[in-house]
Task: inverse folding
């Protein structure tokens, strides 16, 4: 009885399969060092490119924000630098002026749709190429290049009790209106001037959004006999959903953080604190009352208000976009 040596009788296919089974898996780490170095560099490249921007944000945004929040838990005046817990926040919410400022924030949230609808409507008419649309585009953007101080000074003259606007409405039998001296009207007046002075930038953003619309959909809607309101509601608004989200958030931030100059020039927070906003309150506490810790607490409250309002607005607009 003969015994076959081991491996005798294997075919070439068997030896080839053995060699394939002993071949290293290209997905394992046992590949050449050069390939491993290339794979590592490819994985690290995005982080290296993003690192400078992240460092700038951390150094000039997040770190100062953290310091400001921490500073809001320290004392002012005779308790300068001493930990006081929530004492600043308790004093803040008990202050009648800050309560007025918070109520005015609620008013700004209610007026936000108007501040967004005005540039949106004007951009729509320009996009539809109404006669003179090039001229209107320049005129609408012109207030955006004016300094808020100049805009406030101009409207102080126009809206004075004996100013041109009251003389004009007096010609139709209406009495003079104290636009800036009436506590019930002053805030609406300042917000109106702010919208007039800043809607040019939102107009440009809307026009950029119109450039991304699918013109085939617009042409199809016109061929199907859709009216202008139907085209706006069913074609333009869904196509501009992301643009509208951006304009809503940036406009809200502008209302909360960019009205100081107008408030200072037109009303100085009056009459009776009726036009106080958190940013004006922060300046008063820091610049006039020398209470930086209380101002830091107000700044922290303003930050969280902006964060919550922005997130709620984006969530609502996204849900509306999905429903459309």
Result:
């Amino acid at each position: 009885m003969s015994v076959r040596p081991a491996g005798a009788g294997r075919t070439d296919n068997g030896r080839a399969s053995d060699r394939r089974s002993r071949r290293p898996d290209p997905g394992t780490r046992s590949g050449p060092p050069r390939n491993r170095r290339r794979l590592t560099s490819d994985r690290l490249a995005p982080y290296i490119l993003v690192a400078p921007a992240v460092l700038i944000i951390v150094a000039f945004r997040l770190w100062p924000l953290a310091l400001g929040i921490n500073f809001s838990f320290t004392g002012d005046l005779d308790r300068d630098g001493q930990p006081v817990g929530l004492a600043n926040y308790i004093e803040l919410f008990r202050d009648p002026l800050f309560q007025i400022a918070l109520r005015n924030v609620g008013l700004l949230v209610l007026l936000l749709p108007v501040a967004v609808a005005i540039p949106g409507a004007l951009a729509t008419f320009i996009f539809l190429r109404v006669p003179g649309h090039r001229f209107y585009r320049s005129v609408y953007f012109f207030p955006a290049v004016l300094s808020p101080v100049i805009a406030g000074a101009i409207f102080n003259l126009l809206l004075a009790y004996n100013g041109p606007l009251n003389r004009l409405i007096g010609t139709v039998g209406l009495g003079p209106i104290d636009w800036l001296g009436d506590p019930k009207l002053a805030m609406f007046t300042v917000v109106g001037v702010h919208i007039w002075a800043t809607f040019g930038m939102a107009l440009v953003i809307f026009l950029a959004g119109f450039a991304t619309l699918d013109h085939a959909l617009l042409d199809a809607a016109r061929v199907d006999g859709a009216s202008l309101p139907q085209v706006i509601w069913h074609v333009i608004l869904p196509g501009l959903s992301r643009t509208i989200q951006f304009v809503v958030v940036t406009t809200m931030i502008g209302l909360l953080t960019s009205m100081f100059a107008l408030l200072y020039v037109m009303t100085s927070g009056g009459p009776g604190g009726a036009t106080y906003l958190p940013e004006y309150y922060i300046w008063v506490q820091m610049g006039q009352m020398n209470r930086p810790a209380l101002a830091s607490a107000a700044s922290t409250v303003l930050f969280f208000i902006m964060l919550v309002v922005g997130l709620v607005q984006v969530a609502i607009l996204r849900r509306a976009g999905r429903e459309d």
Remarks:
- Residues 90-323 form a domain with the MetI-like fold fold (CATH 1.10.3720.10).
- Residues 86 and 94 are 12 Å apart (CA to CA).
- The first helix runs from residue 12 to 22.
